């Protein structure tokens, strides 16, 4: 007996229930980017970035759908010719019959979402929103089971996150005690005021720029909140396992056709950095 096939429309419906598109930030571009809603879906591939290499990986794995955190077409494009990386990506998706779905800031604010996954990697409990932005809870604040030093905390975090060439950058004294922690996956140096208001001892995020960090450390007069830049890709890739698990559970509710789908997480590191020269250890020794 032949069973009804799972379609892209089924999967999109499940994804939109988990990560409602209307919870995304106003500047964001989320949802279905490529694909035919009537096409069958037998294998789903998860990744942070829809790079050419990831799309090739999805095609090699026989994926019908690629679910990524970052958008492919966040800003306007005027050509999808293969002379550009964006055009080559779109062409490869279409030629390989791989649909693309993006859950970006709507996955950041979901509960559980990107920030919850990062909070778990930090070992936090008693989670609460860091702030409300455009009507949605952004970031998380939680506590460690017991106080630890900043060096101990960041060493444990480094072990919990996927490895990237840039490692983890820390602003604060290695011996400083920390227990209350704020987190935002991905770029987060626009949230310093909320972090200070939260009473966090340390803030874990990514893409921290020189001037905002310098000003934040000056404002704190050397005390908390201390700052941890754990890398954009690393702080968001921890969400993929949660997304895979939640989507599989949602599809299972559709009955037998929802349990036949195969899922796979990308093994590619799409962090753009390859190596670091001259990094210093705590205390200023190389």
From TrEMBL:
Pfam families per record: DUF34_NIF3
Gene3D superfamilies xrefs:
NIF3 (NGG1p interacting factor 3)-like (3.40.1390.30)
Record's keyword terms, sorted: Metal-binding
Q: Does the keyword Flavoprotein apply?
A: no
On whether Metal-binding is a keyword of this UniProt record, the answer is yes
Which residues are listed for a divalent metal cation binding in this entry?
Answer: 69-70, 108, 232, 236
Q: Which InterPro entries match?
A: DUF34/NIF3 (IPR002678), DUF34/NIF3_sf (IPR036069)
- MF annotations from Gene Ontology: metal ion binding
Highest taxon, organism lineage: Bacteria
Any one GO CC term of this protein is: cytoplasm
Q: Which family does it belong to?
A: Belongs to the GTP cyclohydrolase I type 2/NIF3 family.
**What is the annotated quaternary arrangement, including any partners?**
Homohexamer.
What protein name applies here? GTP cyclohydrolase 1 type 2 homolog
Organism per entry:
Pedococcus cremeus
